[in-house]
Amino acid sequence: MFSRFKFITARVYLGFTLLLFMVPIVTSVTGQDFYLDLLTRVLILAIAALSLNLMVGFSGMISLGHAAFIGIGAYCVGIPAYYDIHNGFVHLGLAMVCSAVFALITGAICLRTRGLYFIMITLAFAQMLYFTFVSLDEYGADDGLVIYKRSEFAGLLNIENATTLYYTVLAVLLIFFVLLHRLVQARYGRVIIGSKHNEQRMQALGYNTYKYKLVCYVISGTMAGVAGFFLGNFTNYISPEMMDWTHSSELLFMIVIGGTGGVFSPIIGAAVFLLLEEFLSGITIFWHLIFGLILIAMVLFGKGGVHGLLLRWDEKVTNGAGQ
Amino acid sequence: MILQVQNLNKSFGGISASSDLNFEVAKGQVHAIVGPNGAGKTTLIAQISGVLKPDSGNIIFNGKNITKTSAYRRAHIGLARSFQITSVILPMTVLENVMLAVQSLSGHSFRFWSPASRENHNREQAQQYLIDVGLGQRAGALAGEIAHGEQRQLEIAMALALTPQLLLLDEPTAGMSKDESGNIIKLLNKLKGQITILLIEHDMDTVFALADTTSVLVDGHIIATGSTAQIRQNPEVQRAYLGDSLA
Ligand SMILES: Nc1ncnc2c1ncn2[C@@H]1O[C@H](COP(=O)(O)OP(=O)(O)O)[C@@H](O)[C@H]1O
Ligand SMILES: [Mg+2]
Predict the structure, then answer these.
(1) Which residues of A touch B73 (CB under 8 A)?
(2) What are the pLDDT digits (tens) for B47-70?
(3) For the segment A106-122, what is each residue's pLDDT rounded down to a tens digit?
(4) pLDDT for A3-44, tens place per residue?
(5) How many domains is chain B partitioned into structurally?
(6) Does ligand 1 have an atom closer than 6 angstroms to the CB of B37?
(7) Which of A110, A189, B44, B219 is surrounded by the most beta carbons within 10 Å?
(8) Owning domain of residue A52
(9) What is d(CA A42, CA A254) in angstroms, rounded to the nearest whole number?
């Protein structure tokens, strides 16, 4: 089991996880609350990126509508809070059920298409939801809703506290990572990976690939809904803008940067993306341009993203040792 | 009769790839289909295996009309195929490819936690199929990195792992060296009598070595069916297909 950690890739990911655990300790000593906030956002979007990569990286379904699930999760905090329902179990339960149902319905339709059409129809569904919420005047329409009180967990967990929120998100992220890490090696994972590479063959082997991919879509959407639940709580504010397709494309960038080949790598991708954005916007007003160029360079030259880079490094070391 | 194809029609635009196609396969036989390139052999296999829906006509398997049955369900009722153009999961190992076939028959795959590789029973079975087709030594290699001939063997191992009653083979020796195709013929000879085989084959020597019955497919329909010896002598067949290759 632990022999795995002789590999650089595994060591880097383990080291990165340990760093994540230390963030609140460092920021509390140095008093840099800003960075705790930034890293909380990284972890929340890492959950969304992790879930998106199950679809993109492991099942070969490229979606431009993933932000819809984040929006659903966030509104499942905002709308109950608007009616003075602050029970976190209700919020989280709603977020998961609503995003799962939305994934089931839209996925059932999207999965009847392939390739570019699939991308366009996921985008269309997300934009439909976006405009639906824009037209809901009761819930602030364009302006959204302010959440005055974060979800309450019957005194078990107080996520009004920034450090508690951070560790809660981190715990959920790591649980999701472990679940997906197991999933891709289990029977189910073999089937979706097989379908990604050769769907016709999988059908000839007796697999109803449509059903397996639909379940993948639902799992992925539900996890992104949980990310939305945290994002709503974290920003204390929700608006249709959270569902905008640009956020879906940002998630795609994150997984491409991290590398679509690994389960853990989207977490790295989310961190690189958001920290780079933060850093660049701090030093120049032309940061959008520079950021764009860096992203293009990473996509063009970073074959397999950070994950690919680490794997090639491992390979070199292994081959070197073998000679 | 294990398979009956009745009045099958399938066209692509103006091209009629199956036109009023009728034939039957008797249980236990090796039934070969020969015919020139573009005659509609692959299209026929695609319709029998459910990848393509016919425009009209029926496909009866074991007495049941399966014309509208989906491809994946056909695999579960005893139909398996190999593809003319090698179709395996390239980034998986040879063993993992066959394990996918074994897994397909051993219950559903909505299992999310235990690693598939630790299902010893499935692995041992898959390994046995690899040994049967002569790939026992290659289990750990990536399917994308083995030789073309080995990929053809893998195709057959995956089809066999579905324990079919009817095995559809679309030019299993396509692109193989003499040695390699010799191995496939030996393997198919071993299977003969155990499984019914519908064999699409270009190479007449292979057909004559294996087939009990041969049908000749030209322009989307069968122009002759008979014992392999009869087919050899049929003048219409010689004119239409065998031509001077036997002269
Ligand atoms: N998907 C397709 N779209 C259009 N034409 C096709 C398609 N598949 C096969 N054809 C045409 O149908 C005819 C029969 O093809 P095929 O069944 O592959 O022949 P064979 O396997 O006997 O060489 C050919 O003329 C071929 O060009
Ligand atoms: Mg063909």
Answers:
(1) 206, 208
(2) 999 999 999 999 999 999 999 999
(3) 999 999 999 899 999 99
(4) 566 789 999 999 999 999 999 999 999 988 899 999 999 999
(5) 2
(6) yes
(7) B44
(8) 7-322
(9) 11
CB contact under 8 A, B162 and A206: yes
Phi/psi at B212 (nearest 5 deg)?
-85, -45
- Are A251 and A67 spatial neighbours (Cβ–Cβ below 8 Å)? yes
Contact A188 B49 (CB under 8 A): no
Q: What is the pLDDT of residues B177-192, one digit of tens each?
A: 888 888 889 999 999 9
Is B83 inside any structural domain? no
User: Atom 27 in ligand 1: which residue has the minimum CA distance?
Assistant: B38
Question: Do the domain assignments include residue B123?
Answer: yes
The ipTM, to two decimals, is 0.93
> Which residue among B9, B10, B15, B217 has the greatest number of ligand 1 atoms within 8 angstroms of its CB, and so is best to mutate?
B15
B14 within ligand 1 shell (Cβ under 6 A): no
pLDDT digits (tens, 9 = 90+) for A119-137: 999 999 999 999 999 999 9
Q: Does A179 touch chain B (CB under 8 A)?
A: yes
CB contact under 8 A, A205 and B88: no
Under DSSP, the state recorded for B7 is E
Q: What is the CATH number of the domain that holds B33?
A: 3.40.50.300
User: Coil, strand or helix: which one is A67?
Assistant: helix
**What whole-number distance in Å separates Cα of residue B158 and Cα of residue A201?**
10
**For chain A, where are the alpha helices, taking DSSP H only?**
8-30, 33-53, 59, 67-82, 88-110, 115-134, 162-185, 187-197, 199-204, 209-235, 245-258, 265-283, 287-301, 305-322
Q: Which ligand is nearest to the Cα of residue B174, counting in written order?
A: 2
Per-residue tokens: B55: 């425009």
B31: β partners: B198, B213
Q: Does A179 sit within 8 Å of B76, measured CB to CB?
A: no
Whether A152 and B83 have beta carbons less than 8 Å apart is answered as no
How much is the pLDDT for A277? 93
Q: Is residue A1 part of a domain?
A: no
Q: How many contacts does A have with B, using Cβ atoms within 8 A? A: 102
Q: Are the Cβ atoms of A187 and B111 closer than 8 angstroms?
A: yes
Provide the pLDDT confidence category of residue B36 given band limits of 50, 70 and 90. confident
Task: Report the atom number in ligand 1 closest to the C-alpha of B43.
Answer: 17
**Whether B98 and B159 share a structural domain:** yes
Nearest CA in chain A to B144: A197
Residue B68 in domain? yes
Q: Which of B135, B163, B191 is the last residue of a domain?
A: B163
- The answer to whether B220 and B18 have CB atoms below 8 angstroms apart is yes
Looking at the structure, do residues B247 and B169 belong to the same domain, yes or no?
Answer: yes
